[in-house]
Amino acid sequence: MRAGRLDRTVTLQRHTESVNAAGSVSATWTTLATVRAELVSNTLTETGYAFGEADNDALAFRIRYRPDLTTKDRLTYEGRAYDLVGIVELGRRRALELHCEAVT
Description:
Mean pLDDT: 87
Distance between the termini: 32 Å
Number of helices: 0
Strand content: over 45%
Shape: globular
Low-confidence stretches: none
Number of strands: 6
Helix content: under 10%
Strand order of the largest sheet: 1-2-3-6-5-4
Order of helices and strands: EEEEEE
């Protein structure tokens, strides 16, 4: 993976829950890492939902390999949050391609 193509900065986040002193549970997104990425595709698709069709912003990024990412994590890019809907390993532990959809 060429470093010159990694021209975007994205933040990987993980959903965490913590219990405070009063015993209530609070859920937050904790920053896992801030990494350099290559924007592979930026598409706007129509998705069918129960209430009809809606536009869906979908992105695909390539980052260096990380063994700890799952589709339960999310990514933020330019102040907007995106759910990870697919993770594809490229090569043998060389890179990951992250397929993301905007959080609604």
